[in-house]
Specification:
heterodimer; A: alpha/beta; five-stranded parallel β-sheet; globular; B: 358 residues; 9 strands
Chain lengths: 150, 358
């Protein structure tokens, strides 16, 4: 993982309402992040593999990945991440409408693993709390990567 | 009964008996044959068993009056002809009976096949209905909740980001919208829960100690119980063969209702008891709350049915519908007794632990 002053977060999400809420919640938590949005699985894969319009794309510091996406689903994107040496250690958070049990079942059935799994909260205040958890996940991943480097 | 000729089948049952007419014919044929045989034997041995052999002269007119056939038949010959005729009649009778039986069997088979086809159609319809229910559950879980979530989060941002700039009435409208969206979310969630109760029965249930589940539910309400000075009394409860979360929901809704619908000036008292009835247990949850009109005893189990104002008693009227659905999913029944200001009793039955092991 590359250390950057402002964490780069790739949000793979097709619901603009969730993207807006996530951005608002990060800002509300005063967490300065640079967010990039991929609205479907294909765009996310192109972005991560620097294909087409994304040749200049940098590797994000964190991926927030929905499972139910147009074109390619979240598990296909996760497989791409875990199979590329350059991306393998990228911290990935699965954020889906399904229950954690269903999320885990779906991801494990695809033979891959994410780092964290969350269910999308139904309301505003819980979304704010989720943003704090996501920040905590990022900090944990950053500390873990730094410890390995040393 | 003329003749008992219906031997027991290997399986112990009996074949259907022949008609009385068939039995008479058989008896008659047997007697005729015996007479003919006895007479023939008598002639051979030189000791005629019947009247002496005396020829009969028979004349038949065939086709035309001028054409005649003259036959001379002995008495023995007549007996043989008679016996053969009787045998022929018996055989014909059997053939007709067999034909009738075959027709009846074919008709019965057709009816059976129709019934099987009808059941197959019903089974297929049920499978389709279950599939539609599963799809509904999926839609309720995902497709309906997404726009609802968008409404709630957008209203939250509007309220938080711009609320201070808006007039008081606008803020009130936003608050009402947020509350409406929250209630809609709860209703969708409850409908989803209701739709998936039967589906969750596909997994076999283990024996569960209802005392343990009740303790969990009471612990969950301990804050409210303490605040209202309520008492929850339960005798020794049995083990049941039900899914743990279903029993939890049952106790949760019933005890929650007893606490919610308590009389304002009376400390709630909730008594839970169980009584063995054949292969099931009959539970009762009794309270001393505000009760209800006995005429509404069945209606209160309807989905989203509320007897009181939402502001006075919050909730969406799904709790008892969920309870009733859970109980009926296990083949049990549920009913309520109550009178205004005299409390309510909810009765339900559930299978005991040793039942439904398959």
């Amino acid at each position: 993982m590359i250390e950057t002053a402002v964490p780069r977060v790739l949000i793979v999400e097709d619901n603009p309402g969730d993207v807006r809420m996530l951005r608002y919640a990060f800002a509300d938590d005063q967490w300065p992040v640079e967010t990039t949005v991929a609205e479907d699985g294909e765009k996310a894969i192109h972005y991560l593999q620097r294909q087409g319009a994304f040749e200049e794309a940098s590797v994000p510091d964190l991926v927030i990945l929905d499972l139910n996406l147009p074109k390619y689903g979240g598990t296909a994107v996760l497989k791409v991440i875990r199979s590329a040496a350059r991306l393998r250690k990228l911290p990935v958070i699965i954020l889906s409408s399904s229950s954690q049990e269903v999320i885990l079942k779906e991801v494990r059935a695809a033979g891959v693993e994410a780092d964290w799994y969350f269910t999308k909260p139904p309301d505003f205040d819980e979304f704010l709390a989720l943003a704090k958890k996501i920040r905590g996940c990022y900090e944990t991943a950053r500390r873990s990567a730094a410890a390995k480097e040393h | 009964m003329l003749l008992e000729w219906a031997p027991r089948s290997p399986g112990g049952g009996t074949r259907p008996k022949r008609s009385a007419a068939a039995q008479v014919l058989v008896l008659f044929a047997a007697v005729s044959l015996a007479c003919a045989a006895g007479y023939a034997i008598g002639v051979r041995l030189g000791r005629p068993a019947g009247p002496p052999v005396k020829p009969y002269h028979l004349t038949f007119r065939l086709f035309h009056r001028s054409t005649t056939v003259n036959l001379t038949v002995s008495q023995l010959g007549l007996w043989v002809i008679f016996s053969l005729s009787v045998l022929f009649l018996v055989a014909l009778t059997f053939a007709v009976a067999a034909w009738g039986q075959a027709r009846r069997t074919a008709r019965a088979n057709r009816e059976l096949n129709n019934q099987i086809a009808e059941r197959e159609r019903a089974r297929e319809a049920l499978r389709k209905a279950n599939e539609e229910l599963r799809q509904f559950a999926y839609v309720a879980a995902h497709d309906l909740q997404e726009p609802l979530r968008n409404i709630r989060t957008a209203l939250g941002i509007l309220n938080r980001q711009y609320g201070a700039e808006l007039a008081a009435e606008a803020r009130e409208l936003i608050a009402e919208s947020i509350d409406g969206a929250r209630r809609l979310h709860e209703m969708v969630k409850d409908l989803l829960g209701l739709a998936t109760i039967t589906e969750s029965l596909a997994a076999p249930a283990a024996a569960v100690d209802s005392n343990h589940i009740l303790r969990q539910v009471v612990a969950n309400f301990r804050g409210e119980i303490a605040a209202r000075g309520a008492e929850v009394v339960a005798g020794e409860l049995p083990a049941l063969r039900v899914h743990e979360n279903h029993l939890y929901q049952l106790f949760h809704h019933l005890i929650g209702n007893a606490l919610k619908y308590a009389r304002p000036d009376v400390a709630p008292s909730i008594v839970i008891a169980a009584e063995r009835r054949s292969s099931a247990w009959s539970f009762s949850v009794r309270d001393n709350g505000i009760g209800f009109d006995p005429a509404l005893g069945e209606e209160i189990f309807n989905i989203f049915r509320r007897l009181h104002d939402r502001h006075e008693y919050p909730g969406n009227g799904m709790g008892l519908a969920v309870c009733s659905k859970i109980v009926s999913a296990y083949g049990g029944s549920m009913r309520a007794e109550g009178r205004p200001n005299e409390g309510a009793v909810f009765h339900f039955t559930l299978p005991c632990a040793e039942a439904n092991r398959d």
